[in-house]
Design goal:
- The protein is elongated and about 85 Å long.
- The chain is α+β, with helices and mostly antiparallel strands.
- The strands form two sheets. Strands 4-3-6-5 form a four-stranded antiparallel beta sheet, with helices on both faces.
- Among the domains are: 8-105, Helicase, Ruva Protein, domain 3 (Orthogonal Bundle), CATH 1.10.8; 139-233, Chitinase A, domain 3 (Roll).
- Helix content is 48%, strand content 13%.
- It has helices spanning 8-16, 27-30, 45-56, 65-87, 94-117, 124-137, 153-164, 169-176, 198-205, 243-265, and strands at 36-38, 41-43, 141-150, 187-191, 217-219, 222-233.
Length: 287
């Protein structure tokens, strides 16, 4: 399997922010033999290793000879295409310039974050505190309900009337619902209010077990007739199962606090959105 069958343009963008112009070099690259040279442009071992790490998630040494050849061919192709783009002046086009500028910002932000967090890894105490915060914010109740989804309020009103006369909810759901849950008689399984759009969640929360919504409930998907079958207390996930996610949250908060400080210390001048573009026509004076 060719694990390097990726977009050449995507590869070029990935490398663009750290690519060198012909004739440029670093002290580290000066003594290193390039893995390839394309029209005089050297592709360094560092670029090759970085490319493999990002595409395959491995080190170059972990690949076999065929995979390394595939990777190099893909990298060379990307360089050839990028050079042609420069010949065509595409690197001067507004969208390309903006894309490269944004890629630089993203890459630098990630680099700064990685550097900042080196000695500030999340501690067990911080993870436990974040866990308690997240658990406290979780919905305390889960619901099990069925619904019938139709296009119009009139259709939903007729279904409610049929149910009032003794029709079976599951049968009507299987025959008339537009939702995929119709195959299970409209059963949505267990869910929390956070998993549903607000009008639906509010309607379910107002029901008692076994009760059907007295009026149709409108959401962006259509009109619902809902029956609440059961409720249960929500069990929070075990700490160990969400530890990786908690680490991301804690470290993201740390970096946000750091970047907030950088922002507060920066001299920022914002141009109002209503201001004319540079070189554009000025707003005429009032008559």
């Amino acid at each position: 399997m060719n694990i390097f069958r990726v977009s050449v343009l995507g590869t070029a963008l990935l490398l663009a922010a750290c690519a060198q112009k012909p004739g440029q070099s670093t002290m580290a690259d000066a003594s290193a033999k390039p893995v390839a040279t394309v029209n005089g442009q050297a592709l360094s071992s560092a670029q090759f290793d970085f490319f493999i790490k990002n595409v395959a998630g491995k080190k170059a040494a972990e690949l076999n000879a065929e995979q390394r050849t595939q990777a190099l061919d893909t990298l060379v192709r990307a360089e050839v295409v990028a050079q042609q783009g420069e010949k065509d002046g595409l690197d001067k086009q507004s969208d390309t310039v903006s894309s490269l500028a944004l890629a630089r910002l993203q890459i630098m932000e990630q680099a700064v974050m990685t550097n900042y967090l080196k000695g500030r890894k999340a501690t067990d105490a911080e993870l436990k505190a974040e866990y308690d915060t997240q658990v406290a914010a979780l919905p305390k109740v889960q619901y099990r309900a069925r619904h019938i989804l139709v296009k119009t309020k009139e259709e939903a009103d007729k279904i409610i009337a049929q149910l009032a006369k003794g029709a079976k909810f599951e049968t009507l759901a299987a025959a008339q619902s537009l939702d995929g849950s119709k195959v299970n008689g409209g059963d949505l399984g267990w869910f929390s209010s956070a998993n549903m759009v607000k009008p639906f969640a509010d309607a379910v929360a107002a029901l008692k077990k076994g009760q059907v919504t007295p009026a149709p409930v409108q959401t962006e998907y259509g009109w619902h007739v809902i029956r609440l079958d059961d409720t249960r207390e929500s069990a929070p996930p075990a700490f160990d199962t969400v530890k990786d996610k908690l680490t991301q949250i804690v470290e993201s908060k740390k970096f946000k606090a750091y970047s907030d400080g950088l922002l507060a210390a920066a001299k920022v001048v914002k141009t109002p959105a209503s201001a004319p573009a540079a070189g554009g026509p000025a707003t005429p004076p009032a008559q």
